[in-house]
Amino acid sequence: MFSSRVFWKLLAAMVGIYVLAGLVLGTLVARWQANELSNQVDERLRTAALLSAESLAVPMQSGRDEALQDRVRTLAEKTGVRYTVIDKSGQVLADSAQADLAGVAKMLSHDERPEVVRALARGEGKSEHISASLREPYRYFAARAEVAGKPVGVTRTSLSRESIDQLTSTKQRLVWSATAVVFLIALAVSLGMIRQVVGPVADIDRAVDTIAQGNFHHRLYVPNRDELGQVAGNLNRMSQRIDARFNQLIASHERQATVLGGMIEGVIAVDRRERVLFANEAAGRLFDFRPSAIEGRPLLEVVRNHSLEEAVSAALATRQPQRLETTQEIGDKMSVAIQATPLPGEPSPGVVIVMHDTTELRRLESLRRDLVANVSHELKTPLSSIKAYAETLRDGALDDRQASIKFVERIMEQSERLHHLILDMLSLARIESAQQVFEIVPVSVEEVVEECLANQRPAADAKQISLVAEPQQPDCMVRADKEGLREILDNLVDNAIKYTSAGGRVTVRCRTTGDAKMVSIEVEDTGIGISAEELPRVFERFYRVDKARSREMGGTGLGLAIVKHLAQSFGGGVSAKSESGQGSRFTVELRLA
Q1: Smallest Cα–Cα separation from 278: which of 373, 357, 343?
Q2: CB 101 within 8 A of CB 66
Q3: Which DSSP helix (H) or strand (E) runs through 326?
Q4: Which label site among 358, 363, 520, 566 has the fewest CB atoms less than 10 Å from its CB?
Q5: pLDDT digits (tens, 9 = 90+) for 186-232
Q6: Which residues form the domain of 245?
Q7: What does the CA dihedral 116, 117, 119, 123 come to, rounded to 10 degrees?
Q8: Does one domain contain both 442 and 585?
Q9: What angle do CA 16, 17, 21 make, to 5 degrees?
Q10: pTM of the prediction?
Q11: 377 and 349 share a domain?
């Protein structure tokens, strides 16, 4: 309880109230007591003065004598009041403060004392001033003494101010002591009352803290039947409801997180100030951030894309969905389609942004356009030649037998070229679409190489090019389709022969890699080579290093693309190394059988 701040606040408030009330009440009582005491002192002095005026009026007529002095001293000893007897001329006849008449005789005339002057004039008089003989402040009361109705003098009573103050201080100490006792009693009672309040409040505070930490099963018992008991009961019911709602929220959140996490589209939700409320993993991958670390941060700081930020601002301003496509350069350049939809409400409380990576779609569209353009161009050339030769024959060349035979041969050449182009395109399309069925079996590389070189040797001999198969390793068996591997080698060797000058050399070799899991089949030539700028593109469709020479040699521009896709279909790959004028080396890697 003593660690409770509520306890100390209530205690401090009550102590403050009690202290203030005690000070006010004590001050008022002390002042009242002081006034009452002052009135009592005045009444005491008056009574003593009046009585002494009656009893001493006759002796005063005798003047200053020892009997009067002794009588005054006796009265002073009995009443505790100083007595002074003064004749009507102001001469002091007796004074209880003096030891004898000699001392009385030395006292100055009192004819100008204000209390004496008032008593002679009005019958009574009082004042407070410093005694000329004793040099101390006194309070005085004087009464006129009469004999047969005629004034004969004044009797004056007095008390020192110090004695009055001491009496007043004693009374005030009693008042303040009583106030302190009442304060302590009230404080003790207040402690008990505060404890009855603070104890349950502390229990409620601990229960609230426990619930705030997620323990919604905690229950609180407060025996009070007052409002604190009602608060405890309400808190228990609230905890039950929160537990049920929290479980519902967890289940809903898990479902939502599963759905959003499984989406390939990026999703970001922002509030009206364009601060991120939520982002899924797909959005983090698109814009290179960790979703768990960006909540509450400004959108532009997270995505660093001004087009996206402008779309969100427009959606908030117009309350209309905004669509755009932007680029994002994180590593490779990406194309992202974005839709920013404002949330319902007036004003809109935020925006949901859905993003889709369209990079592959745009790449495929570009490939489609390039393919259409390349196919159109490749088909146009032989068709144009066929058309030109046919028109020439129609216009009279048929009459010239030698010329007509030459033109017919050209038409056949272009038709054959067109036939090969269409076959290669169909073959490549089947391979890419996985429609062509391959029989993947262990295949002897040595056997396929021998068949390939035997088939290509006439063309090589015609150009005086040496075809060499280096000694093969006996374990060069790969997992592939035999006809597919044969097509790979035919394309590579055919290209090597086409781009190697007379007297050159084409070498085929096979060896296992260092981890003995893959087999490398290399076709190396001493031809014109490929520049470093063009080397990465040699496996693209219709790409030719030397376009004029390739068409002159009858190439379709699809051979290396077919090689790449066949190698990938067999679980391998292909690469090329070359320098302009230094020959080329193409390497096909396939899995060891």
Answers
A1: 343
A2: yes
A3: strand 322-330
A4: 363
A5: 878 877 776 666 666 666 666 777 777 777 667 766 666 666 667 77
A6: 216-262
A7: 160
A8: yes
A9: 115
A10: 0.42
A11: no
